[in-house]
Amino acid sequence: MDRPSEDVLSRMPLAESVMLLWKWVTAPERMQAIWDKNRGKCYEKLISFDVMVNLIADALIKHEGSGRKAFEDGIENEELGASLQAAYQKLGRLPIEVSQAFLIECSSALSEAYPLWAEYRLPKSLSKFRVLVVDGKVIKRAAKRLKPLRGSSGGMLGGRALTAFDWCNGQVCGLIATEDGEANEKGFTGALVEQVREVKSGPILWVGDSAFCDLTQPAHFASRKDDHFLVRYHSGSPFFLDETKATTGGKDELDRKYIESFGWLGSPNNKRRIYVRRIEVAREGTKPLILITDLLDSKSYPTLDMLSLYRERWSIESMFQQVTDVFGLKHLIGGTPKACIFQLAFCMIIYNMLQVVRGYIAKGNDLEPQDISVAKVFEDVEEQLVAWNIVIDTEVTREYFSHSITLPQLRKRLDKLLGNSWRARWRKAPYQTRPPKEPKKKRSAGSSGHNSVYRILLDHAKKKKKTKSKSS
């Protein structure tokens, strides 16, 4: 069998599309460049970074999160020339810088392949901006495989990250991570801003929740000319009204009253204080919603547009939920924080890839991307990939995807494969109001919550060092 038959290919357009995208983003030269630039003191011997990437892909997509099965298959087909233990150790030592660069480079490649037709349209007043939503993500449910973790009570935190989410194409575009799951990710804002600016040109409008309302984070967001911010107000940073500017009001799209005023964020004797525009929306039965922004011109940037945009901040929370529940972050393969962070970056890349697939499906069927369920499409992607690997021989697959492809050719092929692909079951179910959750029970005194894997391993290493010094 020289190549798959047209009949077989026509039945698996999702599988072919995902494999084409995978080849595009994980080209050997791209993977090697990521490794060479960010590996630090790590080295390649029997297991290259390119091999590890493909093994983790098999684990997450083909083997339902089982690293052992993927590594055993790799040994069997001679892709992995080392033992299971060596593979797990390699995964556990991957530098965080490699994971961060892996996400950035692959996401940039996927953004190039994304159909412009499917990008979300901003209000005319904000159309010149690239809207990026920022938020933190903690990696929970780390396995207690390592000896120092065994017997520990409570859940294990495998690391923490600050991410940037491109609202226009629905893709993660930035990641700064730390091994310490109990760290405060706000300290990474400056590094994240600089990281994203290397791959995103043009003016950026940064959107964040109240955690980013102080005098430090907005300064990072607005540190480049033409970049601005819109964040939720936090009472920890006092607001001082400018009485020389008139206070105005009106009603939003939900018929709620709002008040708009101007003033300073920060006390009068603080040199870092920022002049901002403040929008306060009254909400029945709960605290008012208060936003601040440095887009001061109310005529150029209408209040209703700012409120409408902030409501889209939830999209990053939806992404976190899908990365965890749909794309495999709930089942962590490695036990070290570095392995957990690499898997987080990996799951986000898979999420981004499905955004591209959804974009082409929406374009070909004249649908809104948000009306298509990524989770349901991914179910069929997994099913078709399994079928492909059963029906089509591995060598035939390698030969079929062996030819290099340009970006225009990739876009044209994805248009053809996905433009006519549609199943009614992919349509997202209408939103249903859920009953309020019952309040969580308070923990009793002395009970444990979550623990940082990094801190436990650090304490273990210190105790071990003291024991050795005493015995000597």
Query: Roughly how many Å apart are the termini?
Result: 67 Å
Mean pLDDT: 89
The helicity comes to 40-55%
Assign an overall shape: globular
Total of DSSP H or I helical runs spanning 4+ residues: 16
Oligomeric state, counting identical vs distinct chains: single chain
As residue ranges, the low-confidence spans are: 444-448
- Biggest sheet, open or closed, and with what strands and sense? 10 strands, mixed
What's the β-strand tally? 12
Backbone structural class:
alpha+beta
What portion of the residues fall into strands of 2 or more residues?
5-15%
Q: What would you report as the Rg, rounded to the nearest angstrom?
A: 24 Å
- What is the H-and-E element order? HHHHHHHEEEEHEHEEEEEEHHHHHHEH
Describe the structure in brief.
This protein is an alpha+beta fold and 472 residues long. The chain contains 16 helices and twelve strands. The chain has one domain.
Question: What is the strand and helix layout of this fold?
Answer:
Elements: H1 6-10, H2 13-25, H3 28-38, H4 49-61, H5 67-76, H6 84-93, H7 96-113, E1 130-138, E2 155-157, E3 160-166, E4 171-178, H8 189-197, E5 204-208, H9 217-221, E6 228-232, E7 239-241, E8 248-251, E9 257-265, E10 274-281, E11 289-293, H10 303-310, H11 314-325, H12 337-365, H13 374-391, H14 394-400, H15 407-419, E12 450-452, H16 453-471
Parallel strand pairs: 1-5, 2-12, 5-6
Antiparallel strand pairs: 1-3, 3-4, 6-11, 7-9, 8-9, 9-10, 10-11
